[in-house]
Known about the structure:
Elements: E1 5-12, H1 20-30, E2 34-38, E3 42-48, H2 49-60, E4 67-71, H3 83-86, H4 92-114, H5 129-139
Antiparallel strand pairs: 1-3, 1-4, 2-3
Amino acid sequence: MPKDTETRMIVIAPSSSVTPDQITRLIHTLSAEVTVKETCYGAMVEGERAEVAKTLEAVRKLDPNRIFSKVRGFPIGDARRCRAHHGSRPGFTQLEKEWECLSLIEKGVTCAEKGEAPPEIPRRQKITVEELKRIVEETG
């Protein structure tokens, strides 16, 4: 892959109404010199860095606080990552965990734009020894 080529993952937050199909359709209408692949979480885009950056700028306009991107370490279809060669999804567990956090990031970004403090996230409380014993006894 040439040095000024970049592959990026576009990930849609769970709270977004934008679909992967809408993203790929938009990218195709841009007539950008990029390769796009629709995925279950959004899309992958590959091309010259400048073209990829322009493409991402247009895509994020669909839902600015709920569409995110990150650099992908491998080109689209690379045999080291492609499911056609592995059958499993290497790295998907990490992506799935990041995806779950996107709603929190979206709330933080929205609050920052409004100049508000982000909402407090309630911390899970520790259970007492008695409560743990009760749970163990109930589950047998």
